[in-house]
Design brief:
single chain, mainly alpha, 8 helices
Length: 201
């Protein structure tokens, strides 16, 4: 597996001769595009057609549960099975500063793939496919700039699947009380914005 990891990394990783514009695209994908996860979650919970708010908030709730579980699994795996990043092995080229911690599985990959799969399973086919394509772009970029191995991203995808499975099972058992408690907490914390009409009640 390590030989495959090194081979795939060598194919994807940028070099000093790589186009500057492609590196610029990779930097945006690797650093900034992950922000679409919290931005979309907040937007779907706070705004939208009144008739669709219950559906949107169910999607948000299940997505957040999946994200929390998947990220906890990813962190546990990184501690139990530590794996050095490419630059820690002086392998390939690195174009992005990163702490010398465990690379497997990728946190960025886990977050975006969980988010994408959640939308694929619980929202719309088109949104899930769109976010999956974004996830592939982020996964590529993190390898391209030299901070992750390709198999870190495969591990992230599998953890994301596990996160969505856990969330669906939990929702099947406790979805109604979870939804009710989240709504009460939301109305308590956002009472003023709701009253002023800035966000949906």
């Amino acid at each position: 597996m390590e030989q495959l990891n090194h081979l795939l990394f060598s194919w994807i990783n940028a070099t000093p001769a790589s186009p500057k514009w492609l590196l610029s695209v990779a930097f945006i994908l690797a650093n900034d595009m992950i922000l679409i996860v919290p931005a979309t979650i907040a937007a779907l919970w706070l705004w939208g057609n009144h008739q669709k708010m219950a559906f949107q908030r169910e999607v948000v709730s299940k997505t957040v549960i999946a994200l929390l579980f998947a990220m906890a699994c990813a962190k546990t795996l990184s501690v139990v099975f530590p794996h050095p990043r490419p630059f820690m092995e002086s392998f390939g080229y690195t174009f992005l500063q990163h702490s010398a911690d465990s690379s497997f599985p990728s946190d960025h990959g886990t977050a975006i793939f969980t988010f994408a799969l959640a939308f694929l399973f619980w929202h719309r086919l088109w949104s899930g496919v769109l976010f999956l394509l974004l996830g592939l772009g982020i996964a590529w970029s993190r390898v391209y700039v030299g901070v992750h191995w390709p198999l870190d991203m495969l591990g992230a995808f599998l953890v994301a699947l596990l996160g969505c499975l856990f969330s669906q099972l939990l929702w099947n058992l406790f979805g109604t009380p979870i939804s009710q408690r989240l709504e009460k907490l939301y109305h308590l914390c956002f009472a003023i914005p709701i009253r002023k009409g800035w966000v949906r009640g």
